[in-house]
Amino acid sequence: MVRRQFLLGSLALAFASRAGADPLKPWTGIVTPALDLKDLDGKQHKLADYRGKVVLVNFWASWCEPCRAEMPSIERLRAALAGRPFAVLAVNVGESAPAARKFADTMRLGFPLLLDSEMRTSREWGARLLPATFVVGPDGVARYSFYGELDWSAPDVRAQIEKLMR
To answer: Are the C-beta atoms of residues 153 and 77 closer than 8 Å to each other?
Structure first.
């Protein structure tokens, strides 16, 4: 049932985002949720440990086509901003470590894939549709959100993220 809700929402967003990608929208939450998850290698990642960097937090699943389609653009953005105060945390929603690893083996990604098997973190962040992405400023406060597939390496999107690094 949960997977079906994510799938239907993801499909609707895929069509909407292809019709005309909106710029990043200001995040409307009151308090930035915590993030404290392990990656595929068992290393713990806490959002608080990334203070001083702009962090792109992406919620995804291997069965979500728009999620899979946007991953290369997230990697291009990460590579373009290498050496600058920027990080990507990609949170796998509701899947097992073997499923996430199988996906990871199909792509060259230079950022950690975190596991949210019980979907607690994704619920706290309001990631009810996939992909769901949030941009957190260097002060640890979420600044932007985007639901659906987006070319994260597009010049206008990159400019918004670079502005947060200043």
So the answer is: yes
Cα(162)–Cα(85) distance, integer angstroms:
9
Q: Which domains does the chain have, with CATH numbers?
A: 2-164 (3.40.30.10)
DSSP-H helix ranges across 20-110 = 65-80, 97-104
Strands (E), the chain: 25-26, 36-38, 44-46, 54-60, 86-93, 113-116, 132-136, 142-147
Query: Hey, what are 10's tokens?
Result: 């993801």
Whole-model pTM: value is: 0.87
Structure tokens at 59: 């919620």
Of 3 and 99, more confident? 99
Average the pLDDT over 79-106 and give the result.
96
